[in-house]
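Hi,

I'm pasting everything inline rather than attaching a file, because the server keeps stripping attachments. The sequence lines come first, and each chain or strand is labelled.
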Amino acid sequence: MMKKRWRDLAELYRNALLSDVIPFWQRHSIDTRCGGFYTCLDRDGTVFDTDKFVWLQARQVWLFAMLYNRLEQRDAWLDIARHGARFLRRHGMDSDGNWYFALTSDGRPLVQPCNIFSDCFAAMAFSQYALAVGDDQARQIAERTYRNILARKHNPKGQYSKAVPTTRPTIAMALPMILANLSLELQWLLDARTVNESIEMCLAELFGLFLDPDTSLLHEHVSPDGRRLDCFDGRLINPGHSIEAMWFVMDLASRRNDTATIAKAVDVMLATIEFGWDRQHGGIFYFLDSRHRPPQQLEWDQKLWWVHLESLVALAMAYRLTARRDCWSWYQKIHDYTWQRFPDPDCGEWYGYLDRAGRVLLPLKGGKWKGCFHLPRALYMCMRQFEQLSDPAPD
Amino acid sequence: MMKKRWRDLAELYRNALLSDVIPFWQRHSIDTRCGGFYTCLDRDGTVFDTDKFVWLQARQVWLFAMLYNRLEQRDAWLDIARHGARFLRRHGMDSDGNWYFALTSDGRPLVQPCNIFSDCFAAMAFSQYALAVGDDQARQIAERTYRNILARKHNPKGQYSKAVPTTRPTIAMALPMILANLSLELQWLLDARTVNESIEMCLAELFGLFLDPDTSLLHEHVSPDGRRLDCFDGRLINPGHSIEAMWFVMDLASRRNDTATIAKAVDVMLATIEFGWDRQHGGIFYFLDSRHRPPQQLEWDQKLWWVHLESLVALAMAYRLTARRDCWSWYQKIHDYTWQRFPDPDCGEWYGYLDRAGRVLLPLKGGKWKGCFHLPRALYMCMRQFEQLSDPAPD
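And the predicted assembly:
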């Protein structure tokens, strides 16, 4: 990477966010007929599938409300958040207030509330939206959904869980992570004790149960008492998810001036990048087996947009908080890899899925799992990190 | 491909089956301590995971019993079938006779009976095994499982189904296919009427509902009245599955001397190969979208062993039954692709998963989905096709 001044980097991210990515979603994703958003957008923004996945609907509401709350109070952004919130409020929940997984374009339920992450993103969406508009009904939806998640958290899949519960009890890292994130997001409407307990629980579980102290790697699944499990799920390392988790931790630790936790999160993040980096083709693998056995996921060697963007956020934040030179040199390496391959200069927005060699695997800009979320959030977060830096960059 | 005599081709397949593949599984897969089979075998046969997936346990029982019944009555083969059948009988079912999806190495249930294909392969396994040993208890297990499948077939996922049933009713091609196959397998213990009805139902559904007459492609999912569905599942084409289905159809039609149905199956099979062939790198894609939109499956462009082996069976059988030159020229093209890339000359057996360019993606010989089934079955089937040919091969 050319030696950049912090201001240039902040400007790079701001431009990508405001002149490319956000306009792309404004132009192509709004369903003016039925409400809500199209997320299955082909390379040029053409809608190639009209189903509506509640995760992605909620994430887009969150994103536009967040930009309104934190970056600039643009009416156009608030209108988009309102447009999505209205659709979700009308169609997103079953009669018990559980959030469906997928809807038809006109809002009829397609897939049952089988996935608690629909609820998590809905709570985040309505919380940000309520903050933006001061809407008490939205605030109530956020709070009610949050309580419902707490009530379901010990059996998040409910009747859809296929595991025989007693044979090999397993807990997943995703749950404490999302709860900590949620509690921070909903901090303004929760009491301080709930928020603090949730954060303490997250840190204790992450570093006490999911972290392997020998390798400094986080496992996606362990036994409830933190033992490694020698099975596909137990050996699974998801580098992008670990790295994202570590910037959540840095973020919340920095609010408490907890430098020990920041240092620990940076160590784990760097160990994960070292482990996950593809020495042959560059980029970070999607899935790996902690013992170097064949992973179960056939897409293990692909290079995904969000993995690289979360790494850039984590490294920029780690450098801002610690000024560690290894963070800065990894930042530059992944910056170059990412900015050379993912942005689409012809049609705008970024590719999501590259093959191992870094070539485009799917030309889509949005699909069943890629929406208006990781890319604009990371662009925003990186911009903010570089805005806050002032010392000269190291060589 | 060098111009081969039929006898040479039959010999090639026989050698691969009897001198390479079957000995590999005999050597590495038998769990002499707990019973049953290890299926997660690394490149050289080392066991890398000990969980036992009921599908693969049952398929291996079926395969060894089938070889015993149809190829040669070797005691060693029958012992292996018995070894697996004993483990399955002891550990494979819940108290209602539904088959679990996965077990620990010592047979404790890990994953509930959420997948009716566990039951299908168990029925096939116990039927072949009962035929081999004249064991009435095994015959009863096969028959009871078959009746159970019929009872569950209108709601095969039961409580684990996540679809809201009324919004977009959908039927899957997998079910009629497996039922026709099962009915043929269990023919010796079922009454003729049951078998015939099942086969008629399969043909009527396949060609009346799942086939798109405009493209001659089979869709994996359609509405119950055969309408195309414009959604990810509805647009999904699984070339390997369609091609496998077509040799099942050719096989059962040839037993009835139904040349019209054979011709139809050959047309669909060739249309599928034309559609699924990767003109850039060779090989047949794993998943495609019927409207050339981005498929949901990230592994869509990979080249899988079973897809190519089922194609060789289908093309060899089609050529034997029809002498169509286009079947023979496709056979040669896919023969060369397959035999050059999948066999592992150093460690034996065949790779399962290649990337788009045909390079090894995972070095394993067995895993959660690859066991002792598609490869030896296809080697056996191809051998049999070429043994039955006598006219000289076309240029």
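Chain B touches chain A at residues 42, 48-51, 100-101, 104, 108-112, 114, 159-160, 162-164, 167-168, 230-232, 293-296, 298-302, 353, 355-356, 361-364, 367-368 (CB under 8 Å).

If the labels don't parse on your end, tell me and I'll reformat.
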